[in-house]
């Protein structure tokens, strides 16, 4: 039996198997939640001309003490059509183009107006262009505004539009197949006998996967039968990623490994030194010009979600072209003490209130109640000493319902 692999090594080996999917160009709305497949360059200057950063009055350079005669107005979207001479001013609003001949803006709080006459009552701007947004302040035409691998969110969408783009290059959505297996599983549509448990993992994994833009299909529950598993794999033959729950251990009824080998898949590695989630299995299969990946997750629901968070989601992000597909931890402090850990790295369910994290008492890998109550995973290294309240810990944020 092989020695369980360290988490970072397993994640690195898995991500090395991923080849980003084909590039397609979609509108800005369709690109949200996806990742840029190529660097994005500006097609225009922003702003396209000098504009005012404040409401006030535009005057010429060196003419910031007054008095002035007001000769017109420049409003956002309605520029002043003339030009300024010394001793003249134009009323200007935030975002409006500076008139020809003007180089400074006096804010309205620093002046007094009497009909068409304007006098300084406050301090002149220092430097004179203090309240001016110069042409190209944000970016210039041809500049790189977003690197490849950037996640497209609201701000990135606005920047892309401002840079002159209507469509963005992204990777196509990955196709994910989720297979729930085990004789003990009862379909959701049927009554659950005492010797059964409801088949909840498939729905949980599909819901977690939908936090990234994918196309997902569920299949199961599949009985512990080699032919049934191979039929399920055949049904998922066009998927980029197949995720199974259950059957990845070493019991007499754990058939995932022999089913995959009979289906033509190669076992890349098996078992990771984490708790929960040790019996993780990774396989690959050549399918035409591309490689399918199979992620065999443990059947216990908490183990299944933890390993999906650490392996399934990073793989889906990598297929989408993310520059940083792995989850990122943050540092917080403990609200309660923690016991020392054993030989495996542990991920404990906890509740984080934004200032401190409280580990939940029930940590059994079959306990869905504490999983639903948690909003973080507390990352504890192997052989870590006990910690007291107030000490620092690393946590991973879960998007996990009501507490998130």
TrEMBL record:
According to its UniProt record, the EC number is 2.10.1.1
Q: Which UniProt keywords apply?
A: Magnesium, Metal-binding, Molybdenum, Molybdenum cofactor biosynthesis, Transferase
- Recorded protein name is Molybdopterin molybdenumtransferase
Query: PROSITE patterns under this entry?
Result: MOCF_BIOSYNTHESIS_2
From which domain of life does this come?
Answer: Bacteria
Which InterPro entries does the record match to this protein?
MoaB/Mog-like_dom_sf (IPR036425), MoaB/Mog_dom (IPR001453), MoCF_biosynth_CS (IPR008284), MoeA-like (IPR038987), MoeA_C_domain_IV (IPR005111), MoeA_C_domain_IV_sf (IPR036688), MoeA_linker/N (IPR005110), MoeA_linker/N_sf (IPR036135)
Domain (MoaB/Mog): give its ranges: 177-318
Q: Name one Pfam family in it.
A: MoCF_biosynth
**What CDD domains does this protein's entry cite?**
MoeA (cd00887)
* GO molecular function terms attached to this record: metal ion binding; molybdopterin molybdotransferase activity
Q: What is the organism field in this record?
A: Novosphingobium lindaniclasticum LE124
């Amino acid at each position: 039996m092989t020695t369980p692999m360290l988490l970072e090594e397993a994640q690195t080996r898995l991500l090395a198997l991923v080849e980003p999917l084909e590039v397609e160009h979609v509108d800005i709305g369709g690109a949200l939640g996806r990742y840029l497949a190529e660097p994005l360059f500006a097609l225009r200057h922003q702003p396209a001309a000098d504009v005012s950063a404040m409401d006030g009055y535009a005057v010429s350079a060196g003419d910031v003490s007054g008095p002035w005669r007001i000769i017109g107005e420049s409003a956002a979207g309605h520029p002043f059509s003339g030009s300024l001479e010394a001793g003249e001013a134009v009323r200007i609003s935030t975002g409006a183009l500076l008139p020809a001949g003007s180089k400074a803006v006096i804010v309205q709080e620093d002046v007094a107006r009497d009909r068409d006459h304007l006098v300084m009552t406050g301090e002149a701007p220092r430097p004179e262009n203090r309240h001016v947004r110069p042409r190209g302040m944000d970016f210039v035409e041809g500049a790189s505004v977003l690197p490849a691998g950037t996640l497209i969110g609201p701000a990135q969408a606005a920047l892309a539009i401002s840079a002159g783009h209507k469509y963005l290059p992204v990777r196509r959505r990955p196709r994910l197949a989720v297979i729930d297996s085990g004789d003990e599983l009862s379909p959701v549509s049927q009554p659950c006998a005492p010797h059964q448990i409801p088949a909840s993992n498939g729905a949980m994994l599909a819901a977690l996967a939908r936090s990234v833009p994918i196309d997902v299909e569920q299949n199961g529950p599949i009985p512990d039968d080699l032919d049934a598993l191979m039929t399920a794999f055949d049904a998922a033959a066009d998927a980029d990623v197949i995720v199974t729950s259950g059957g990845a251990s070493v019991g007499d009824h754990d058939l995932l490994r022999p089913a995959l080998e009979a289906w033509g898949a190669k076992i890349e590695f098996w078992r990771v030194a984490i708790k929960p989630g040790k019996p993780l299995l990774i396989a690959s299969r050549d399918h035409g010009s591309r490689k399918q990946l199979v992620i065999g997750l443990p059947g216990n629901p908490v183990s299944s979600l933890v390993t999906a968070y650490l392996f399934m989601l990073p793989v889906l992000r990598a297929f989408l072209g993310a520059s940083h597909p792995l989850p990122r931890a943050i540092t917080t402090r403990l609200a309660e003490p923690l016991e020392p850990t054993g030989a495996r790295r542990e991920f404990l369910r906890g509740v984080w209130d934004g200032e401190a994290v409280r580990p939940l008492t029930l940590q059994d890998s079959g306990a869905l109640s504490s999983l639903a109550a948690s909003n973080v995973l507390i990352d504890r290294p192997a052989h870590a000493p006990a910690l007291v309240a107030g000490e620092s810990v690393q946590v991973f944020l879960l998007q996990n319902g009501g507490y998130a």
